[in-house]
Write a structure and sequence with these properties.
heterodimer, A: alpha/beta, Rossmann fold, 2 domains, 12 helices, B: mainly alpha
Chain lengths: 380, 288
């Protein structure tokens, strides 16, 4: 009796709140549609916690700077620009829930993100079906090229990075017998596959391939096995969180060959943390023409010189989106069509951003950085 | 080069870490009979409180370890007092308690991320400073030796506590039959509160040690908890010796399992072990 009474009251309360909410929503919607000062909202997905959180947080800071600048200049067609931030945790199902919320609850026409390839892949299908534009500032897994008509990215595919690294290691460094250690993620698998193919084509031999769970921090046994086959170099594809213990554990067990990593190693945190274990490590990274103005703004916002990978791309993506929405409005299909035609110059991530028919950026310029005394500098 | 000695060392290190998680988990499970998932997050709280006291406030590391461990104990105690105890008094099922502990896990993990950011942090100062010892072609660091010794000491301490003290007797009585324990005059809620304190403090210590060995991050608790739970189930849930046995068995199986096959199979092997035990020996190695 008592219980059922409570239930009835509970349902009533929920119903009243729902009705009141929808009425208040209607009230606020009604007049604002006429004067149209309702903010233009888009979604953002990135790893704000968990693996690669460093990249997500840093990118978010750049996005906030870009949004602030746009709003200071009067917003988009006099409407303020607003971003709804969601945490994708670099994990498929979390990002997929976040996208679900953005698409179905917030009804955004565009999602900026995800960052990790696993995030973007998890909701690309959903976005394509609901005709929501996705512009990823960080995902590099090759399969995202084929993810759909509404899926874009301004970060180059791993096809470029994997083969670039294979050529650099084989030709420039002259290492022909190498081992691979990779984290099991869309990104790790993506780069690894392309790398293996290109490295074998060039005539090199991969004498060991060891993977690990992305969340694993104990890589000792994998490293022990790698040590036992004596490679000339270890191609290590790991995010910050596994790379730090991984490199330390390698030195602890006496694996003293040099490491070569991917663009996620462009994170100063790794090199201050691993100390001498990281000396001489190299990695490939997308060349970004950062200007001093952008660097100053980032320093002002995050309080350090830290600009991780994807941060310049995130900043440019916001500016690019604002430009496109200004021109064609908030209709997703119009935004999509315009993106294929658009060309954005003067950014901090590339001299020019244009998209090919897959929604991938045209052209990719990689450089190699080497770690000396805890600092990554461009290798000649 | 023969990698066998190094594999054995790697397995023992992993086993020792899982032992520390499984001991506390089993102690709490024994007394309450529910899966306290928040046990994972108290590991992270241990690592972070040490980080705060030792690195941010600059306290002596031994003092920081003691404060950190006590603090985590109080967190565990507080969780029981504020969340689980009221639910138990209302005769909530173990499923409800499990869901509540999952809620506590998620909420506390988020709070850590808010307070300390989610960046990966290391507690030790780079390589080279740590002493490295060699054993028959295998190497082990000072931290890892400390982890192994701690695991043994904690186990011995816990056994002494359970079998030589009044509190231990009370805990065992509750493990056997809570209702009966209450009838004979044991203040079960109080004793369960103590087990939460002790179990969580052990987990906190594990968090600090793992932080020294690899590093800390807010999400570190989940994978450690999962391994601790596998160790507990394999060894015999609620059984102290069983937890230790299960932890080392898991450490050896997952490290030797990837000897001849690629490393990405490590977790597959760990969870396959769990499933095999659940099907063929659900009560674990140490049948009660």
């Amino acid at each position: 009796m008592d219980k059922s009474k409570k239930w009835v009251i509970g349902i009533f309360v929920v119903a009243i709140i729902a009705v009141a909410y929808s009425i208040s929503k209607m009230d606020s919607l009604g007049p604002s549609q006429q004067v149209s000062i309702e903010p233009i909202k888009i979604g953002f997905i990135g790893p704000l916690t968990g693996d690669a959180a460093n990249i997500g947080q840093n990118s978010r800071a750049a996005v906030e700077i870009a949004v602030k600048e746009i709003n200071q200049d009067g917003g988009i067609g006099n409407r303020p620009f607003e971003i709804i931030y969601e945490d994708g945790q670099c994990t498929g199902n979390v990002a997929s829930n976040a996208a679900n919320k953005l698409i179905n609850v917030d009804k955004v026409s565009l999602i900026l993100g995800g960052a990790c390839s696993g995030e973007t892949s998890s909701f690309a299908g959903m976005a394509e079906q609901s005709k929501t534009v996705v512009l990823s500032y960080c995902s590099s897994a090759p399969e995202i090229s084929q993810a759909g008509d509404y899926i874009f990215r301004n970060y180059p595919s791993d096809l470029y990075q994997g083969s670039f690294s294979a050529e650099y290691i084989y030709n420039k460094l002259g290492k022909k017998k190498i081992a691979i250690l990779y984290g099991k993620s869309s990104w790790g698998n993506g780069v690894k596959d392309v790398f293996v193919q290109r490295f074998n084509e060039l005539g090199g031999t991969i004498i060991a391939t060891e993977g690990y769970e992305q969340t694993s921090r104990d890589l000792r046994t994998q490293l022990t096995k790698i040590k036992s086959v004596n490679p000339e170099l270890v191609y290590f594809l790991g995010y910050t969180e596994a790379s730090i213990p991984g490199m330390k554990q390698a030195r602890e067990i006496g694996l003293d060959v040099s490491f070569f990593g991917g663009d996620v190693w462009d994170d100063s945190k790794i090199w201050t943390d691993v100390g001498s274990a990281g000396e001489g490590a190299m990695y490939s990274v997308v060349y970004a023409p950062l200007n001093s103005d952008f660097k100053a703004k980032m320093k002002n916002s995050v309080g350090s010189d830290e600009i991780t990978i994807c941060t310049p791309q995130a900043y440019d993506a916001v500016k690019l989106i604002a430009k496109v929405i200004e021109k064609v409005g908030t209709d997703a299909e119009a935004i999509k069509n315009e993106l294929y035609k658009t060309s954005y110059t003067g950014g901090v991530s590339a001299s020019e951003i244009t998209f090919d028919s897959n929604g991938d950026p045209v052209g990719a310029n990689f450089i190699v950085k080497v770690v000396r005394n805890g600092e990554a500098i461009e290798a000649k | 080069m023969d990698i066998l000695p190094q594999l054995i060392i790697n397995s023992i290190i992993a086993g020792a870490i899982y032992t520390l998680i499984a001991l506390g988990f089993n102690l709490i499970y024994g007394a309450t009979k529910f899966f306290n998932l928040a046990h994972g997050v108290v590991v992270a709280i241990g690592g972070y409180s040490f980080f705060y006291f030792a690195k941010t406030l600059g306290l002596n590391i031994y003092v920081a370890v003691i404060i950190g461990v006590l603090l985590v104990g109080f967190v565990g105690y507080g969780l029981n007092k504020l969340v689980y105890l009221p639910l138990r008094k209302r005769k909530a099922s173990n499923m409800v308690l499990l869901v509540a502990s999952l809620g506590a896990f998620t909420a506390l993990q988020a709070i850590i991320a808010i307070l300390f950011t989610s960046q990966f942090k290391t507690l030790s100062h780079g390589v080279g400073i740590q002493r490295i010892f060699e054993f028959f072609c295998g190497v082990i660091t000072q931290t890892q030796i400390i982890i192994i010794l701690t695991a043994i000491l904690v186990m011995v301490g816990l056994v002494l506590l359970l079998y030589k003290t009044h509190l231990g007797k009370a805990v065992r009585a509750i493990s056997d039959d809570e209702e009966m324990a209450r009838i004979v005059g044991i203040n079960t809620n109080k004793v369960i509160g103590y087990t939460f304190f002790i179990g969580s403090a052990i987990a906190g210590l594990a968090g600090i040690l793992v932080g020294f060995d690899t590093g800390i991050e807010p999400t570190m608790g989940l994978s450690l908890l999962l391994k601790g739970v596998i160790a507990s189930i394999v060894g015999g849930i609620g059984n102290i010796y069983g937890g230790v046995l299960g932890a080392f068995l898991l450490g050896f199986v997952e490290n030797f399992g990837i000897w001849k096959i690629s490393g990405e199979w490590k977790d597959v092997i760990a969870f396959a072990l769990l499933i095999v035990f659940l099907i063929f020996r659900p009560k674990g190695i140490m049948n009660k």
